[in-house]
């Protein structure tokens, strides 16, 4: 029960009741007849609202959540409140009936969607909380939203979720407040890194003993974090301990990121940040030439672009598959995380580079106007799967128009 978001559950139930009451109100008002005098109709409608408890439902539905007095003025809390208001406006606009024979968004629907996403991109994911309550509310809101709505409000081009939100929380002055990190928090960070980057040295027995000591220390640190008092100062240590425990228990190298719940993806992101921090501390800067900049895609024909994209996709998939083969791994990591050897690092890099080439070729094709049948077919073939997978309604609509134009050109023999 401690994982259920009670306020969100109440809001969803109120929305359900509101829809039922509104539908019943419209049904009864219509049944009363259209020829009634305005005064009589208003009296009947007032009675219906009272009978259906509409005023009470709407008062509860639009009740602004209480903000702790020490958190008044925190822009993160205000941003969350505005997000909820705009989301409700989107929900209402989505219920407006579409005219027969059209799938295009109505003006009020487009306006609601544009306002919602403009707020997300320019305010919600950019606002730094100024209080501990703001940090906690931000984390709860972003974690519960994908579960309740089915998608994330903060997802990067690489699929990473909540990274901007996590960065904003980390930069909050409430987490600094002139104090040093707790000993438990520092130890969690240190031992987590050591376990994930553990390199066996010496005899197998000695290496196993060294790793077992790290695991024992981990168990002790998690117990220490659990024993810490439930105060604001200990939120960071307890949250990091929770993420560490979740990562250890849930992570499997063969499991795609999309199969994890929000908490699992957050744990993956934190683990990636840990490893990135180690790499920044230990590795010299390395400049890797970009294969995309070495290819003159702008001068390639549409057929050549399709060949480049198809070959990059096929070879990249083979490279990624090889990266997970035994010969490309140093060993089976105790946590299940990948532990690439030199060969694994190489083929993983090849896969990443060719994925960038694949995307660049498709982007170049998308920006062109095809000059003939072959160009049209090549371009549409390249863009079909990516456009549909991205799920952007505007992009899909534009692609559908291009496809219909191709059909008409085929019928006309052009």
Keywords:
414 residues; 17 helices; mainly alpha
Chart the SSEs and their pairings:
Elements: H1 6-31, H2 38-51, H3 54-61, H4 75-94, H5 107-122, H6 132-149, H7 163-170, H8 173-176, H9 183-196, H10 204-227, H11 235-250, H12 262-282, H13 291-294, H14 302-323, H15 342-366, H16 373-390, H17 393-411
Written description of the protein model:
The chain is mainly α. 67% of the residues lie in helices and 0% in strands. The chain contains 17 helices and no strands.
The gist of it:
The chain is mostly helical and 414 residues long. 67% of the residues lie in helices and 0% in strands.
| Beta-strand percentage range | under 5%
Q: CA-to-CA gap between the ends? A: 64 Å
Radius of gyration: 28 Å
Indicate the multimeric state. single chain
Biggest sheet, open or closed, and with what strands and sense?
A: none
Stretches where pLDDT is under 50 for at least 5 consecutive residues are 64-71, 277-288
Give the rounded overall mean pLDDT.
Answer: 75
Strands, total number: 0
Number of helices: 17
Shape: flat
Order of helices and strands: HHHHHHHHHHHHHHHHH
